[in-house]
Amino acid sequence: MIIIDKKLTPVFVATSFAAACFGQSVHAAEYDIYGKAEVQIANTDNGVMRYAKKGTQIDAPFSRIGVKGQHVLTDSLKAVFKYEVQVKGFEHDDTDEPFSARNTYLGLAGNFGEVVVGRNDTRFKYSEGKVDNFNETQADIAQLLPGQDRLGDTITYSSKSYAGAQLSLTYALKDDSANNEAGYAATLIYGDRGLKNKNYYVAISHIDSLNNINASRIVGAWQKNDLQLGAIYQHSESVDGTKSGNGYVLSASYTIDKWQPKLQFASDDSTIRQSTKGSQWTAGVDYLFDKQTTAYLFYTDLDLQQQTDSSLALGLKYKF
């Protein structure tokens, strides 16, 4: 954590003023600067799949930089914040708009849990945990599964963990909703979403009228030594009732020294994310230089009813 004086930013001034109103002494803010730099060379056959153009391209998939932190207001209350942007300046065709919005919010945390307001992953998207072995690539489960959304003008509540269980909610007011309806997502988690402190993760999640869909899913992940398995089952419907169907994801990875081969299969017949039902399988391997740096190679094949696409990608990813 980096310690800075309260006068350095308006956010810290405002939270320090709030602390004074509670009769507390002035506290410094604690924050982290973090991000991900990634470069990928990919050859894609037809450019049908999302996040990939036809032909051979150099991309920076979802590279980003952000700042997150907290400011103590009282013995039982603190302000929390995150400001994060996607950085697209790597690429020739993105120099005019090198940044785009990602999770950006401000809120309060205490014994009640945490409440933040702003742009955030819905708790439905959050429920996927670490099941997606090819997250933020053209093999991302969002290629087929609806509900993998990051929405602005939302309120997110996360409870504290009780006996390994945690409840979290996303709420969007009617006036700020994409379909002019108030909507919410609710997720109940049991275990460890990151599979670091426990070797299992289970989630039940439901979304109602957020971004024009209703959906429910069950998520599970399990890790034993170097083997990790994951699965998602989901039922989705459009808010107007014209589209509905089921989707699922199966994933597996195995770590051998610094090598990590990975497999994944996804399918969905709701025709919400794509215009027809489809399936996608992906095989790849990561080379883990250390906890921050990963080189990877994967091949993915998307099969829709009337179109197909495939992509071969080689990349390097650095997290800081």
From TrEMBL:
Keywords: Cell outer membrane, Ion transport, Membrane, Porin, Signal, Transmembrane, Transmembrane beta strand, Transport. The keyword Zinc-finger does not apply. It comes from the Bacteria. Residues 18-303 form the Porin domain. It is a multi-pass membrane protein. It holds the Pfam family Porin_4. Residues 1-28 form the signal peptide. It is found in: Cell outer membrane. The keyword Ion transport applies. InterPro entries: Gram-neg_bact_OMP (IPR050298), Gram_neg_porin_domain (IPR033900), Porin_dom_sf (IPR023614), Porin_Gram-ve (IPR001702). Homotrimer. This is Porin. It comes from Pseudoalteromonas neustonica. The lineage of its organism: Bacteria, Pseudomonadati, Pseudomonadota, Gammaproteobacteria, Alteromonadales.
